[in-house]
Every structure is written in structure tokens, then in C-alpha cells.
From TrEMBL:
Listed GO CC annotations: cytosol
Name of the protein described by the UniProt record: AsnC family protein
Source organism of this protein record: Nocardioides psychrotolerans
GO molecular function, one term: sequence-specific DNA binding
Transcription regulator AsnC/Lrp ligand binding domain location: 7-76
Length: 92
């Protein structure tokens, strides 16, 4: 499974509609509205790199109201649960 984190800049007046349209795309698991230099963060979870291109370049970038994107491919995942297990002394 490949995870891509996509930073999305959108037409400010259309952020809710843009977020909903992106969330409806196959391969997009979550969309968050955020503060800062970007408007939305979309998580894309697909089987291979070609599918990332199909979702981001062929669909997400073409959603009306999207003005710019920046895509980051995740290569290792860490979670609180994983970190707690790694540092556990096994005293439970």
C-alpha cells in the first residue's frame, strides 16, 4: 500500500465543496481542512505508484476550485501505538 499526502491550495470561497469532491475520489481516504499556507490535506492510499498518478494528476488536480497541489509519498509510517510498543519494557 502506498500513501501519498497531498497539500491542496483551493479557491477560498469553495473550500468545503472542493474538500467534498476530493473526498469522493476513489483512492482518497481522508481530507482535512487545515490552517497555514495550504487549505486542505488529502491522504491518498493506493496499491502502486501509477495509481497515485491516476488519483492526483488525473483527478484531484482537475477538481474545480483546486489551484495548486504538492504531493509527498510516505515511505515509513510511525504511530503512537508503534512507538509505545518499541519502547515497552514488557512489564504489562
Amino acid at each position: 500500500m502506498i500513501t501519498a499526502i497531498v497539500f491542496v491550495k483551493a479557491d477560498v470561497a469553495r473550500i468545503p465543496e472542493v474538500a467534498e469532491a476530493i473526498a469522493a475520489l476513489e483512492g482518497v481516504s481522508e481530507v482535512y481542512s487545515v490552517t497555514g499556507q495550504i487549505d486542505l490535506i488529502a491522504l491518498v492510499r493506493v496499491r502502486n505508484h501509477d495509481d497515485v498518478a491516476a488519483v492526483v494528476a488525473d483527478q484531484l488536480n482537475k477538481v474545480a476550485g483546486v489551484t495548486d497541489t504538492e504531493t509527498h509519498i510516505a515511505f515509513r509510517a510511525y504511530s503512537r501505538h508503534d512507538l509505545e510498543s518499541a519502547f515497552s519494557l514488557g512489564l504489562d
